[in-house]
Amino acid sequence: MPELPEVETVVRGLSRLIIGKSIKSVSCDNAKSLQASRSTIDSFVIGSSIVAVRRRGKGIIVELSSGYAMLGHLKMTGQMVYVAADARFGAGHPNDSLVEDLPNSTTRITIDLDDASRLYFNDVRKFGWIKVMPIHELETDSFLSKLGPEALSLDFGVDDFTKRMLRYPNRNIKALILDQSILAGVGNIYADESIWMTSVHPTRVVSSLSKTELGELYTNMRSVMNISIDLGGSTNKNYVNAEGKRGNYLNFANVYARVGQPCKRCMTAIVKIRVAGRGTHICPICQVLV
DNA sequence: CACTTGACCTGTCCGC
DNA sequence: TGCGGACAGGTCAAGT
Fold first, then answer.
1. Strands A129-134 and A34-35
2. pTM of the full predicted structure?
3. What whole-number distance in Å separates Cα of residue A100 and Cα of residue A88?
4. A32-49 tens-digit pLDDT
5. What is d(CA A81, CA A78) in angstroms, rounded to the nearest whole number?
6. A278 catalytically annotated
7. Cα–chain-centroid distance for residue A203?
8. What is the residue-wise DSSP string for A51-67?
9. Is there contact between A35 and strand B, defined as CB under 7 Å from any strand atom?
10. Torsions phi, psi of A267, nearest 5?
11. A3 in active site
12. What is the DSSP letter of A234?
């Protein structure tokens, strides 16, 4: 779930909810979730205020007034959920929420803010992490420094996309658009969706695609992720936004999680195959391997 | 270079 | 109902 549209949705929510607040305390029950020394946290996180929240690829960057930043990745099951001081769970709580009460058994990090609200980093599988570093070290961070251009950037045009793809003529198209060093943001759901929209088979190698097909893939990839942002992202299992609410994109998905259901173009049953080590959803008629 | 596999973890679902 | 195995949004390292 946390692919570009989901992370973007979280970042927009956090921007609205936590900017300007200062951090009172930070606690963590899993050393791998919070990759920072206690002294760094005490000196540069606690007591500083939140200046900006932004996204790079699937990473979340929270800039602090101390000149440090928290860099986070949700990986497969991470959540960043804000809970206002006066929040009441249970009766009256929105029924589209997946979060009933926090902290819960998946809460790895709890951040107390100065207005008695809290930010929870929940993560069932413990793959996600938050690191702390000076803002000027972000550009050399081991995760951030490897990322390719932002898939949705206004500066990233179809010619840039095509040129980048053609650098790897022998790689298959699904593996390539999932590769964050080539293009930052696309994950398994939106790879399957945009490849279906383009009516190509995910194992087609780049050199077999026409310039028109590559152009359509670019347009479809951006379109599907922009639509998903408008719908609050995809909730397959446990993704929630900064307020603990589900995303709605999968109600409109064409192939992802639609095994056995009819293709929206030709009514053939969607099938699931394996490509680049990932579960991959295709229409066996629309997406032929030439 | 391209591709596969396994690791990292826990929960859920499916078949027997 | 219980139990084992497969599988799940993402990266990363290592092996073929």
1. parallel
2. 0.95
3. 10
4. 999 999 999 999 999 999
5. 10
6. yes
7. 24
8. EEEEEETTEEEEEETTS
9. no
10. 70, 0
11. yes
12. -
Strand, helix or coil for residue A71: strand
**Minimum-distance nucleotide, CA of A206 to C1':** B2
Cβ contacts of A93-96, under 8 Å, gap ≥ 24 = A94/A245, A96/A245, A96/A246
Closest to A2 in 3D by CA, of A63, A61, A80: A80
C-alpha closest to that of A120 among A249, A208, A18: A18
Spell out the residues 6+ positions from residue A155 whose beta carbon is closer than 8 angstroms to its own. A149
The lowest-confidence range among A22-26, A92-96, A208-212 is: A92-96
Strands (E), A29-92: 34-35, 50-56, 59-64, 68-73, 78-83
**A219 three-state secondary structure:** helix
Burial class (CB in 10 A: 0-12, 13-18, 19+), A173: buried
Backbone φ and ψ for A147, nearest 5 degrees, come out as -75, 140
Closest nucleotide to the alpha carbon of A238, via C1': C9
CB atoms within 10 A of CB A155: 7
Q: Tokens 């791998």 correspond to what residue? A: A32
Non-local (6+) Cβ contacts of A258 within 8 A are A270, A281
What local confidence, expressed as pLDDT, does residue A95 receive?
A: 43
Can A24 be counted among the known catalytic residues?
A: no
User: Which of A41, A40, A47 has its CA nearest to residue A27?
Assistant: A41
Judge whether residue A233 contacts strand C, using its CB and a 7 Å cut-off: no
DSSP codes joined into one string, A174-206: HHHHH-TTTSBS--HHHHHHHHHHTT--TT-BG
